[in-house]
Design a protein that fits this description.
Blueprint (H helix, E strand, L loop, with lengths): L5 E2 L11 E2 L15 H4 L13 H10 L2 H12 L3 H14 L7 E7 L5 H14 L4 E6 L10 H7 L1 H4 L4 E4 L7 H17 L4 E7 L4 H6 L4 E6 L12 H4 L4 E4 L7 H15 L12 E4 L8 H18 L1 H27 L2 H15 L5 H26 L1
Parallel strand pairs: 3-6, 3-7, 4-5, 4-6, 7-8, 8-9
Antiparallel strand pairs: 1-2
Helix pairs in contact: 2-3, 2-4, 3-4, 3-8, 14-15
Bound molecules: guanosine-5'-triphosphate and magnesium ion.
Length: 386
């Protein structure tokens, strides 16, 4: 047992503090205390060095999956410093984006989306494509949602060098998750992935978000559509370019055929999601792979037809502008509701509206006036500070 002694340094106020003396031979830097493998230089500790902007840009452009992951982590970071760096990297990679085919996949939990993506993705990789798989799940928390489950479900795909799988960014608002996913998609395109598959559970608003970032959108359904439509709203059907009746295998095949017919009839009554492209229902099995090559043919035909008609590019253009407008909305919303003067006055104004003293319209006018004045005052201060 080492003997501890205490000494008081010269600068210490007497009787107030004591400093422990070191113990001979067991300081960190003492050779005797270091793992011999480290000491001999045989083994170097892993160091997670920060990559420079150039390293990130070059790495992603080269298709280096490790660097792509790091670039995406930067995109997903909520730190303002990382935000600025991520945006500069993205800006420089932007000319390399836009060439991939973006495909969204939605459907109720358990419809077989992940299994279908695994089978479809493997088929595309076999055909020489590079496939990136993303998911959007605004409810996913820091536990990164179901990625562990998905990575095992997409076991063979995740091990292929032609594929890249990235789960939904964790937490945050749907708007925040959507921005991060869009930018992740662009990073993947810059890294050379030419097919992007985005999975989302079709139970909330996330399917509308995914629709707004993809070219082709498919709805995966199960047999027994019947009267209740498995809770699938007409709204979701109107977003789809294809309805895929999955699990059309084994004993289920006959029922799947009937279901396909039912959906096919329903599509006659809904507005097609894409101008000039009639939505149809198709049979598929993620297990036997039946229907998958046909589905890819359908998607290619879609691309050919919509490219010819100009609808493909028009949709991409309006998606970009809608995205910009949505971000302006969100930014202004945060600016307004995060303003100290507004939050301070809000309870009082709310009360006044509830008791009928002022109308909601008048309340808004007053709040906005207040907001304008505080912003203007702040600007003046900024000018002086500059
Ligand atoms: N027989 C059969 N089973 C399938 C098929 N596709 C998926 N399954 C099974 O259905 C279950 C659910 O599949 P998932 O791929 O996890 O479904 P999901 O839609 O991704 O589910 P969530 O991510 O939870 O929304 C799994 O047990 C799969 O093995 C298929 O084509 N045929
Ligand atoms: Mg899944």
């Amino acid at each position: 047992m080492a003997n501890y002694t205490t000494t008081t340094p010269d600068w210490a106020v007497s009787n107030q503090s004591a400093v422990m003396s070191g113990i001979e031979g067991i300081k960190d830097t003492t050779v005797g205390n270091i793992n011999p493998a480290f000491a001999s230089g045989q083994f170097k500790p892993k160091r997670r060095m920060t990559l420079t902007e150039d390293e990130l840009v070059d790495g992603v452009a080269r298709g280096d999956r490790m660097i792509l992951s790091r670039a995406i982590t930067l995109i997903e970071s909520n730190s303002p410093k990382h935000f600025a760096k991520a945006q500069r990297v993205l800006q420089r990679l932007l000319p390399r984006t836009g060439k991939a085919l973006r495909i969204g996949i939605t459907g109720v939990p358990g419809a077989g989306k992940s299994t279908l993506i695994e089978a479809f993705g493997n088929m595309l990789c076999d055909d020489g494509h590079k496939v990136a798989v993303l998911s959007i799940d605004p409810t996913s928390s820091i536990t990164k949602g179901s990625i562990l489950g998905d990575k095992t479900r997409m076991g063979t795909l995740s091990r292929r060098s032609e594929a890249f799988i990235r789960p939904s960014p964790a937490g945050g608002t749907l708007g925040g998750v959507a921005r991060k996913s869009r930018e992740t998609m662009l990073m993947c395109e810059a890294a050379g992935y030419d097919v992007i598959l985005i999975e989302t559970v079709g139970v909330g608003q996330s399917e509308t978000t995914v629709r707004s970032m993809v070219d082709f959108f498919m709805l995966v359904v199960l047999t027994g559509a019947g009267d209740d439509l498995q809770g699938i709203k007409k709204g979701i059907m109107e977003l789809a370019d294809a309805i895929v009746v999955n699990k059309a295998d084994g004993d289920n095949l006959v029922r799947a055929k009937v279901t396909r017919g039912e959906y096919e009839r329903m599509t006659e009554f809904i507005r097609p999601a894409t101008e000039g492209w009639p939505t149809h229902a198709y049979l598929a099995s993620a297990v036997t792979k039946m229907g998958l090559p046909e589905l890819w043919k359908v998607i290619q035909l879609f691309k050919e037809m919509t490219t010819k008609s100009g609808v493909f590019q028009r949709r991409r253009d309006s998606q970009l502008l809608d995205w910009m407008h949505a971000m302006i909305d969100e930014h202004l919303h945060n600016l307004f509701f995060g303003d100290a003067v507004i939050t301070g006055r809000m309870p009082e104004i709310r009360e006044a509206v509830l008791s009928g003293i002022i109308s909601p319209t008048q309340a808004v006018a007053e709040l906005v006036k207040m907001f304008d004045i505080t912003r203007a005052a702040k600007k003046k201060v900024d000018l002086f500070e500059a």
